[in-house]
From TrEMBL, chain A:
Keywords: Cell membrane, Membrane, Transmembrane, Transmembrane helix. It is found in: Cell membrane. The chain crosses the membrane at residues 6-30, 42-60, 66-86, 98-117, 137-162, 183-210, 222-240, 247-270, 276-296. This is ABC transporter permease. One of its GO terms (molecular function) is transmembrane transporter activity. CDD domains: TM_PBP1_transp_TpRbsC_like. One of its GO terms (cellular component) is plasma membrane. It is a multi-pass membrane protein.
TrEMBL record, chain B:
The lineage of its organism: Bacteria, Pseudomonadati, Pseudomonadota, Betaproteobacteria, Burkholderiales. It holds the Pfam family BPD_transp_2. The chain crosses the membrane at residues 12-34, 54-72, 79-99, 105-126, 188-206, 235-258, 264-281, 286-305. It is a multi-pass membrane protein. The keyword Iron does not apply. It is found in: Cell membrane. It comes from the Bacteria. The keyword Zinc does not apply. PANTHER family: ABC TRANSPORTER, PERMEASE PROTEIN, GUANOSINE ABC TRANSPORTER PERMEASE PROTEIN NUPP. Coiled coil: none annotated. This is ABC transporter permease. InterPro entries: ABC_transp_permease.
């Protein structure tokens, strides 16, 4: 390979990490918030797809991408709130409900999104991080989604809030011991429904960045399991919002491997390289999980880690 | 035998309610709900043609539902049946590349066995990861499904590709004698019979044999299973293997009876619909049969909804999603004693506690 090809490959993966990683960042932050309160939401996959459609539709109808972002996030919050309410009913399993929500969200997105496959919506502005470079490949690779800084600020905010605010402590308490929360006179269901809905709102931002930045159009294959990978990402990040940023970028880079190789002419194994994020997730789970023990840092009430 | 009235009535009520909500949704889209319900029924069970279409779709649903139901009876939530189905179809189509096959029923059995084996190994991997590495099987099986689809596409578009398949990469077609034919006088293939036999057989196994009973003990109460010394690891792997074999068989049947080769049409989310079928059937293999026929019917009616009433083809997915959510919500009703809560509601309220009486007798 020539030097130019190496630069193109590095730019492809690095730029891909910043582009592809943004949806991962928001979904994993949303899942992190939900899981901190002691509930798992596999339905974030459905939330992601539905909010991606809603954000695209909102931007198409109003002409403002930011209105689309808001609509996507609100729709995501609504669907996640449904998950929260259903799970708080007696005898309802949160894993099964998550799968149901995944189906429902995908169905609704395809149903209402049929009309959106053709049109073009106004896209989110990009931030040119690569202007220092003379290399056009590097410059175009570092055109970053305007939502990326929002996500990083949100991660820091969440990290701070979990440690220092009353709401953050309440969420962590509901996640670690439902009995202790009840004993102090707080409603465990209430806290969990609120956290699940807020998690859906954050994941909705990820959905918006899928259709309003990269790849930037609405189609039915828009999210191939990114909402589910988030569940594994949160385990990888040990339920820390700050580590979610690193994990999301790592996965973005892994997801960009296939297209980056194709762009420099390596056609072989395109589909195999596309499975790298899933293989990586599985490997991380193999490394971090131990039979019969709980993953370090996991909320005590979380069903998926017990 | 006790007839489980509540177990049947609640899903029926939930599906009726789902049809109601779906009616409201299409009403917003400017289509008459009554017409939608009529079309759904006509497309699913209206005439012999619709019945054939329905039964043909019910076959893979039964088998993929078993891939959820059997592990669920052992206490595992496996949702990656789609991966087992896809790899089962791939293994079935790849058999002629590996060895020369007799062009008769023996060949059919061999390709189907290859499919079942591939599916069994794939789901057993998820079971193994859970038992021996402590990885949540729901997440791992789903990741494995995406990996399976990647492997499938890689091989179908590469090593196993029939050079004659231009626009749609496919493997070489199975020879005529190996394919699974229709049941005499219909378009319904023998895969349906395989599905029904698998459901009834595995249902009987769970109910009537010691090993089946052990699996239910392991799933129902792991601590009891440990106390009586059941080999939980082996039983769980067996449940995963059998379930995966069913999903793999579903893929093999789809290849050998419907597509004749492996191509991207195989990835038709039968695996995901099977999750729904199994949950509605409350993970009972016998109950899977009628539920799979009902959902096969919804699937068959989907294209009629699209053609007759101009609704998007995702409409059926929405209906399925609403039905799933409502059925899960109805679980809450199953756990409450309806008569008792009605009586409690009708009874006169007890007088409100007088403040301060609670701590009477305690030193203040």
């Amino acid at each position: 390979m020539t030097a130019d090809q190496w630069i193109a490959l590095a730019a492809g993966i690095g730029g891909g990490a910043l582009r592809v990683g943004v949806p991962f960042l928001f979904v994993s932050l949303g899942e992190c918030l939900t899981e901190k309160s002691g509930r798992i939401n596999l339905g974030l996959e459905g939330v992601l797809v539905l909010s991606a459609m809603a954000a695209f539709g909102g931007s198409y109808l109003t002409g403002s991408p930011w209105a689309g972002v808001l609509l996507g996030a609100c729709v995501g919050a609504l669907l996640a709130a449904l998950h929260g309410v259903l799970c708080s009913l007696d005898g309802v399993n949160d894993v099964a409900t998550g799968i149901a929500l995944m189906l429902l969200g995908t169905g609704l997105a395809f149903y209402f999104g049929k009309a959106l496959i053709q049109p073009q919506a106004v896209q989110l502005p990009s931030i040119p991080l690569g202007n220092w470079s003379d290399n056009p490949v590097v410059r175009s690779a570092l055109q970053v989604n305007a939502l990326l800084p929002v996500g990083i600020v949100l991660a820091v905010l969440m990290w701070w809030a979990f440690a220092h605010t009353r709401a953050g402590l309440l969420i962590r308490m509901a996640g670690d011991s439902a009995n202790a929360t009840r004993a102090l006179g707080y409603s465990v269901s209430g806290i969990r429904i609120a956290s699940t809905a807020a998690g859906g709102f954050i994941a909705g931002l990820g959905g918006a960045s899928l259709t309003l930045f990269y790849p930037g159009s609405w189609n039915e294959g828009i999210s191939s399991g990114q909402g589910l990978i988030a569940v594994a990402l949160v385990i990888f990040a040990r339920w820390s919002p700050l580590r979610c940023v690193g994990a999301a970028l790592l996965f973005g880079g892994a997801g960009a491997l296939g297209p980056a190789l194709q762009s420099i002419g390596v056609g072989w194994g395109y589909h195999l390289f596309n499975t790298v994020p899933y293989v990586l997730t599985l490997l991380i789970l193999v490394i971090t999980c131990r039979p019969g023990t709980v993953v370090v840092g996991s909320p005590g009430e979380l069903s998926s880690t017990r | 035998m006790r007839i489980p009235v509540k177990e049947i009535a609640l899903p029926v009520l939930a599906i009726t309610a789902a049809l109601g909500i779906f009616g409201i949704l299409v009403w917003f889209a400017g289509v008459s709900p009554v017409e939608v319900w009529a079309t759904l029924f006509k497309g699913a069970f209206g005439d012999w043609f619709s019945w054939q279409n329905t039964l043909q779709r019910a076959a893979p649903l039964m088998l993929t539902a078993l891939c959820v139901a059997l592990p669920a009876r052992a206490g595992l939530v496996i949702i990656g049946g789609e991966g087992a189905l896809v790899l089962g179809g791939l293994a079935c189509a790849a058999m002629p590349y590996v060895m020369p096959l007799p062009d008769n029923i023996v060949g059919t059995i061999m390709v189907c066995a290859a499919g079942a084996l591939a599916g069994a190994l794939w789901i057993m991997l998820a079971g193994w990861l859970r038992q021996f590495r402590g990885i949540n099987e729901t997440i791992s099986s789903l990741l494995l499904a995406y990996i399976a689809i990647g492997i499938f596409k890689h091989l179908v578009e590469g090593l196993l590709r029939d050079p004659a398949s231009l626009n749609k990469p496919s493997t070489l077609s199975l020879s005529e004698g190996i394919r699974i034919g229709g049941i005499a006088g219909s378009d319904v293939h023998w895969g349906l019979v395989l599905g029904v036999i698998a459901c009834l057989g595995l249902g009987l196994w769970l109910r009537a044999t010691a090993s089946g009973f052990s699996i239910r003990v392991v799933g129902g109460n792991p601590r009891t299973a440990q106390l009586v010394g059941l080999p939980a690891n082996r039983l769980i792997l067996a449940a995963c293997g059998l379930g995966g074999a069913c999903a793999g068989l579903a893929g093999a049947v789809e290849v050998a009876a419907v597509h004749t080769n492996a191509n991207a049409s195989l990835i038709a989310s039968y695996g995901y619909a099977g999750i729904l079928v199994s949950f509605i059937a409350r993970h009972s293999p016998v109950a899977v049969v009628p539920v799979a026929i009902l959902f096969g019917g919804f699937g068959a009616a989907g294209s009629l909804l699209q053609r007759r009433l101009g609704l998007p083809d995702a409409s059926v997915l929405v209906l399925q999603g609403i039905a799933f959510v409502l059925i899960l919500a109805s679980e809450a009703l199953r756990h409450t004693d309806i008569k008792a809560s009605l009586a409690k509601w009708a009874a006169p309220r007890p007088p409100a506690a007088v403040p301060g009486t609670m701590h009477k007798g305690l030193p203040s």
